Amino acid sequence: MRPQNFETIGSRHLAHIPGEAPHDGESGGLLATAFAAMGVAMPFKADARIFGADEPADYVYMVVRGAVRVCELLEDGRRQINAFYLPGDLFGLEAGKCHQLNAEAVVSSRVRLVRRSVLEAAAACDCALAQALWTATAGSLRQAHHHIMLLGRKSATERVASFLLQMSMRTATDMIELPMSRQDIADYLGLTIETVSRALTRLRQNSAILIPSNRRIVLSNRAGLQRLDS
Amino acid sequence: MRPQNFETIGSRHLAHIPGEAPHDGESGGLLATAFAAMGVAMPFKADARIFGADEPADYVYMVVRGAVRVCELLEDGRRQINAFYLPGDLFGLEAGKCHQLNAEAVVSSRVRLVRRSVLEAAAACDCALAQALWTATAGSLRQAHHHIMLLGRKSATERVASFLLQMSMRTATDMIELPMSRQDIADYLGLTIETVSRALTRLRQNSAILIPSNRRIVLSNRAGLQRLDS
DNA sequence: CGTGATCTTGAGGGAATTCAATGTCGGTGG
DNA sequence: CCACCGACATTGAATTCCCTCAAGATCACG
Predict the structure, then answer these.
(1) Do A148 and B147 touch (CB under 8 A)?
(2) Torsions phi, psi of A189, nearest 5?
(3) pLDDT tens digits for range B103-115
(4) What is the mean pLDDT of residues A15-19?
(5) Strand C: positions under 7 A of a protein C-beta atom
(6) Cα B40 to chain centroid, rounded
(7) pTM across the whole model
(8) Segment (H or E) for A41
(9) What does DSSP assign to residue A221?
(10) Residue (of A53, A168, A131, A88) closest to B117 by Cα position
């Protein structure tokens, strides 16, 4: 079982998520309010499934506390994590009747669910809400495009550096508390766990980061990391 | 200069784009109609820029004829193509005031532009249109997620096979007319031009495909390709 | 035909993976 | 409290796959 203190990562930043957050940009307040009004909060244990691919996409989700990963599996066991979601982030915004991906709690988490039909009905009346949903989805798309460049054209070290900077941005701290394991990071970056480990070691040796503990990383040379991030 | 006959690829499929098309799923008609009513069609020569990163995102675009690539460049020249758009596809749906990516015509193309402000105003009155825009963006997101799995967890041959199947689906033929060069394909798949070429050769040797000409590929063993596609 | 661009093929090298062993941390029971 | 245990992470050696560099082949077009 994972340490419980990771559950609260970023929750204190709910009110002022920086621009790099995947969703919930300028219209964050509106969506947060809508979810608070229409949604039901549910707890999920670490590694619990929130929804599975090919299940009916009846809900849209917002992370309240903890962290969520959205991933795809191939029959032979290969796994790709498409995104991590932190408090304040929306997910499950897929088009169509069914989810295309699996969503799981990374650590013990709290997630707010809103019925898609309810949300769409509300959006039909409230154009600002409709636009906020579009904007949130477009934000997810932007993240995905960033991810594509990462996977397509960057070296292992660049990927890890980019990941650390992104996490730092999203939690608005230089001292990152990682909710996810090395395996999760590897599956997000399209690498193996060993390669991630080696990249982190190299960054530590270059004094770009400190690793006070496995799940805690301090960005001690942000400029150096950004040089890698290109 | 590229052969001009590629301009018309897929245009005859405008009215019945299959489900795998990145945008414009069930609500295709509505968006096509809206674009026809509100938009202005513009011609672009092969390799002409349609919009650039950091330019104000004043328009939303729909391919009428030809093909468009959306890509990102790093300072050192690395290029990642995030998506190809074919007739009927929407692009430029980014959130925020500015585009994040570059869009260029792959071949001589015709693209319909609609002012974003006009579209948003129309969407504010017409909830079906608003939802169609959301759905189109979510469709783009779905494509991006597929792309992420491709780049993160698939071998070179699997990537090429997956690309061919995708193109075949989108143009609804077994005989693909590729509008893009090997370099474009490589930059889409996160590979080098040589690796793409070798993968195609291997697929041809395995009788999965025929290559009657450089820009023409016949899927002679779809099942074999799908096995690779996982 | 000749020319330049595009594509294919080959040989060699390098970055990441695989396989294997060691190290470290957190939780549990003696 | 400390030793043990399993899960997670790091490190090392060997392999593999893809990239780089280089040469040839093919295609489009004048």
Answers:
(1) yes
(2) -90, 0
(3) 999 999 999 999 9
(4) 34
(5) 6-11, 15-20, 25-27
(6) 20
(7) 0.89
(8) strand A40-44
(9) -
(10) A131
